[in-house]
Design goal:
heterodimer; A: mainly beta; six-stranded mixed beta sheet; four-stranded antiparallel beta sheet; B: mainly beta; seven-stranded mixed beta sheet; 47% strand; globular
């Protein structure tokens, strides 16, 4: 069955430190991959997406992600975290068959000053 | 402005009552989705619809029902059969058949059973 795994439920980083959030997917065909961010009590905002082409994609707010087909991964990175980045981050995969959008369980990012 | 509107933002329901959550979009999107969000479980798909008058069950459809009579609207009814309905509900939409784009989300409805 198709699935998306975010292994880290919580991550705490210091302000200014680098960040990497992990995402692995299980899907037989080429996936369409997304990272969303959610502030408490709010909807989801798209950070970046990958459909094809360059496997390193740039997003908003200084985020980037790299698609690695051999590892079935799409990890999110940021070189220097700001306190305003504290939120919950979701990785998602769009299953082409049936146009079904599946999310991981999310990673809560805490930023300490 | 184009977007997705969910209403109400907060909803309280007595046990045994049905309640309907509204989701309206003016983005001219064909596909619409309903997700349930619980702490530590991410977003779980309840129902989704690719076109008007058609919808499919997601992973946790039991105790829920939907309709898609208009392209703009995809209301979700939480029935009394749903044993644990207290949660945050998110509606989303995306263009159908155009996979190189993302889903857009509403601001959510927080349902509490009292």
């Amino acid at each position: 069955a198709q699935s998306v795994t975010q292994p880290d439920i919580h991550i705490t980083v210091s302000e200014g430190a680098s960040l990497e959030l992990r995402c692995n997917y299980s899907y037989g065909a080429t996936p369409y991959l997304f990272w969303y961010v959610q502030s408490p009590g709010q909807g989801l905002q798209l950070l970046l997406k990958y459909f094809s082409g360059d496997t390193l994609v740039q997003g908003i707010k200084g985020f980037e992600a790299e698609f690695k087909r051999s590892q079935s991964s799409f990890n999110l990175r940021k070189p220097s975290v700001h306190w305003s980045d504290a939120a919950e981050y979701f990785c998602a995969v769009l299953m082409e068959y049936g146009n079904k959008l599946v999310f991981g369980a999310g990673t809560i990012l805490r930023v300490k000053s | 402005d184009g977007g997705i509107t969910q209403s109400p933002k907060y909803l309280f329901r007595k046990e045994g009552q049905n309640v309907t959550l509204s989701c309206e979009q003016n983005l001219n999107h064909d596909a619409m989705y309903w997700y349930r969000q619980d702490p530590g479980q991410g977003l779980r798909l309840i129902y989704y619809s690719q076109i008007v008058n058609d919808f499919q069950k997601g992973d946790i459809a039991e105790g829920y029902s939907v309709s898609r009579e208009k392209k703009e609207s995809f209301p979700l009814t939480v029935t009394s059969a749903q044993k644990n309905p207290t949660a945050f509900y998110l509606c989303a939409s995306s263009p159908r058949g155009t996979l190189n784009t993302e889903a857009f989300f509403g601001q959510g409805t927080r349902l509490t059973v009292v």
